[in-house]
Amino acid sequence: MYNIIIIGAGGFGREVLDILEAYNRENIWEIWEIIGFVDDNPSLHDKKIRGYPVVGSVDWFCRKEAKDVKSVIAVGDNTVRQKIAKKARENGAKFCNIIHPSVIKTEYIDFGEGIIVTAGCILTNNIKVGNHVIINLDVTVGHDTTIDDFVNLNPGVHINGDNKILEGAFVGSGAVTIQGITIGKWSILGAGAVVIKDIPDKVVAVGVPAVVKKLLERPD
Length: 220
Known about the structure:
This protein has helices at 11-26, 78-90, and strands spanning 2-7, 32-38, 48-49, 52-53, 69-73, 94-95, 98-99, 104-105, 109-111, 116-117, 122-123, 127-129, 134-135, 140-141, 146-147, 152-153, 158-159, 164-165, 170-171, 176-177, 182-183, 188-189, 194-195, 203-206, 211-215. β24 and β25 (211-215) form a beta hairpin. The protein contains 2 helices and 25 strands. The longest helix has 16 residues, at 11-26.
């Protein structure tokens, strides 16, 4: 049995709860003991979400009862998730990976920590996934691909082989890449985009084929 708390009590937090409950239905001997949620929005404190309490803010991890508790960050915004990860770790949080039981994956994947993989995803081989990555519904990831920290692959994304998705990249729903593509750090790829050449750092790229439409300013 593993104790877990979900960081983020919004819509995606409920979807992570779905994953945990699905896992518990599929397993008998090893289940997640779901404590509830933490969220820095004080208006949510002491409320219940599907029967599970919001026990406080991220500083809850400083408490004695948090000693043996694992966590994941259920926040889709990559920049916000990065800030929460830093704050949570400073307060003593320990992270784990949450993978829906329907996910198809080989044993040849190197996972970091704090990763969320939702229902219907397929990951092949020689894939490296960094920390605090979200791989959302029905995503496929091809061989020899690297996905760096704080990436978000939204529903229906198809990443071909030998891709590099660099830190903080946000890949919109239904986007597709060809073989050997790099998507730059903290760039945003629009929904439905088709990527046939590399995307640089800190840009917004959209369209078929994807082209850069905007430069982004983000502190390093």
